[in-house]
Amino acid sequence: MNTTTDSAPETLRARMVDTILAAGHAQTPAVEAVLRAVPRHRFVPEASLEDAYADIAVITKRADDGAALSCASVPTVVAMMLDQLDVHPGQRVLEIGAGTGYNAALLAELVGPDGAVTTIDIDDEVTAGARRGLDATGHEHVRVITRDGALGAPEHGPYDRIIITVGAWDLPPTWHDQLLPGGRLVVPLRWRGQTQAVAFIREQDRLRSDRMDLCGFVPMIGQDGEKNGTITTDGTVTLYYDIDQPIDTAALTGVLDQPRTSAWSGITIGTSEPFDGVWLTLTATDPATCRIAATQTAIDSGLCTPAISSRSPALA
Q1: 200-249: per-residue pLDDT in tens?
Q2: Which tens digit of pLDDT belongs to each residue from 5-47?
Q3: Cis amide linkage into residue 158, ω under 30° from 0
Q4: Per its UniProt record, what PANTHER family does this chain match (predicted)?
Q5: How far apart are CA 251 and CA 200, in angstroms?
Q6: Helices (H), 112-223
Q7: Which residues does 206 contact at the CB level (< 8 Å), separation at least 6?
């Protein structure tokens, strides 16, 4: 292994945090401090040091078809959600989606010795890995439970903060019930093909959102709200949509071979400007909103040219 100063974990971790700050995240000294303190590479031992501290997701488990089942999330997204969660010393925090244990370690540092962190995952391989990482970094006091995250952990609640680190299509009542009034729930909600990290505050019998940020997460196992299907015979273009949408991808197969018509909106979005606001507005105003994804083959041939190959809004 290269052990020169420039590739030392401390140096790479400092660069990672600098990237996070430049992106406008880690908005409090406490979040910045824990990101600088917790050794992310100890939670992803199979990854290189460079990948461990790059602003990328590190996949730690895949399905037979190659789909990601568990990972260490992108550091800028981790920081963004910690900003949304607003954790304070002494609080009780529940995490759904144990991942590598890295996020639970950050939470443990934020709540301090007088607080408590419980993390849950449905996959026993994932919880075993999280347990190893937490023990190896001095976070033995974090509770790790193998369980369907939709059930929560009422035996250790109620909680001041609940954070979901898998993409959820719906909010089980248990999450609301285990959150104290005035507490915060941060969840990557998936709908109409997009995922937004939504921060909620519990106000007695309802949840009120005060912040949303575009993100992407591995889907939560057991929630079957999203469907997908290809609309090309070679499988190079796929639509992702919700179960309440009457979209028949089989009937749409070959539609992209038909003559094309362009209709301009009159609005120009620059190359560095996000268009998630457009997508969010579409989800509230047009029931046909979904997500389209195209492979490089489809893009190179001109068959389908979405703004972002893997995730762009579409109307079907």
Answers
A1: 999 988 999 999 888 777 777 777 788 999 999 999 999 999 999 999 99
A2: 468 999 999 999 999 999 999 999 999 999 999 999 999 999 9
A3: yes
A4: PROTEIN-L-ISOASPARTATE O-METHYLTRANSFERASE, PROTEIN-L-ISOASPARTATE(D-ASPARTATE) O-METHYLTRANSFERASE
A5: 39
A6: 124-136, 173-177
A7: none
116-134 per-position pLDDT tens digit: 999 999 999 999 999 999 9
Amino acid at the residue 106: L
Residue at token pair 């998630």: 276
Other C-beta atoms lying within 10 Å of the C-beta of residue 262? 4
7, 48, 70, 73: the catalytic one is 73
Q: 3 burial class (0-12, 13-18, 19+ CB within 10 angstroms)?
A: exposed
Nearest to 73, CA basis, from 4, 12, 163: 163
Backbone angles phi, psi at 177, to 5 degrees: -70, -30
Closest CA to 172 of 225, 242, 116: 225
Dihedral of CA 86/192/123/72: which sign? negative
- The 10 Å CB-count burial string (b at 16+, else e) for 218-241 is bbbeebeebeebbbbeeebbbbbb
Distance between the two ends of the chain, CA-based, in angstroms? 50
Distance (Å) of CA 140 to CA 44, 268, 295, 304:
17, 52, 44, 50
Pull the structure tokens for residue 88: 């304070």
- 7: annotated active-site residue: no
